[in-house]
Design goal:
The chain has 287 residues and is mostly helical. It has 8 helices and 3 strands; from the N terminus they run αααααααββαβ. β1 and β2 form a beta hairpin.
Length: 287
């Protein structure tokens, strides 16, 4: 239960931050006419939706396996990350369209004042803190949904910096800088969307990184009594890692001794990866 509460607390904190930033940016963006701030407001609106989805995802993903979901509910987190990717791509269409229209038409003045800078700087501070909190929680609980949120909000910091630069230039009546800043935000959003989408799809089709596979191999090889192994299969679903492997042990061992080695392999993998579902098949070594 403490583990679930820790994940939920981090996700809920992200929701509250998104609500505050969205409202703040909408009010300031409308009052100043800054497309850069309005694009950030739309981005924050989608951030709010994504944060809510992440919150629901971490609540569901920790449910234990049942009759209809024999391998648990971990992939709900992968689906959450993929949906967040689609929301991020949707953000880009509006930003690019509005920015190009303003650059072509021109003549759009922007009122740059205290609140213009205040909302962007506040956004940078809040995003930096919630990204740090989410990254820590994602690492601690091995949550892909929280990790996706952390990556998302870390890129928000850079997009806000771009908008801040655009506001500074606009204060010198270089109004095109605001639209150019908005286009830069769109580029940042597309980049993070691609990275999140690639990782989410990779996990949903049971892909495994070379790093994870190498770590599994190193853990198995470190267990005393394992002569060699083969038919290794690894996949992940949210915070859980699934491992299937055939290990070879000395043919002179008793059934109990061979079983103890199998148990040691399972314990070593769980110690390294945390939440795991492991299936170890034992074979006598003929070499």
């Amino acid at each position: 239960m403490p583990k679930q509460n820790g994940k939920k607390k981090a996700a809920l904190l992200s929701v509250f931050a998104a609500v505050f930033l969205t409202a703040f940016k909408v009010v300031v963006g409308v009052s100043t006419g800054s497309l850069g701030i309005l694009s950030e407001a739309l981005h924050s609106t989608l951030d709010l939706v994504a944060a809510l989805i992440t919150w629901f995802a971490v609540r569901i993903s920790d449910k234990p396996a049942d009759r209809d979901h024999n391998f648990g509910h971990g992939k709900v987190e992968n689906l959450s990350a993929l949906f967040e990717t689609l929301l991020l791509f949707a953000t880009c269409f509006w930003i690019v369209y509005e920015a190009v229209c303003r650059l072509v038409v021109g003549g759009v003045s922007i009122e740059v004042g205290f609140w213009s800078y205040a909302v962007v700087i506040t956004s940078i501070v809040i995003d930096a803190n919630r990204s740090r909190i989410l990254r820590h929680a994602a690492k601690k609980y091995k949550s892909e949904a929280l990790e996706a949120d952390a990556l998302h909000f870390s890129t928000d910091i850079w997009s806000s910096v771009v908008v801040l630069v655009g506001l500074v230039l606009s204060s010198f009546e270089i109004y095109a800088a605001d639209s150019i800043a908005a286009l830069c935000v769109a580029c940042v959003v597309m980049l993070v969307s691609y990275r999140l989408g690639k990782r989410s799809v990779f996990a949903l089709i049971d892909g495994v990184s070379e790093r994870t596979r190498k770590e599994v191999c190193e853990v198995i090889e470190s267990v005393d009594g394992v002569k060699r192994f083969h038919s290794l299969r690894v996949r992940s679903a949210g915070p859980e890692t699934f491992v299937e492997v055939n290990i070879h042990v000395s043919p002179n061992l008793s059934i109990v001794e061979a079983h103890d080695i199998s148990t040691n392999v399972e314990n070593a993998l769980r110690k390294h990866f945390g939440k795991c579902m492991i299936n170890v098949h034992i074979e006598p070594d003929s070499h």
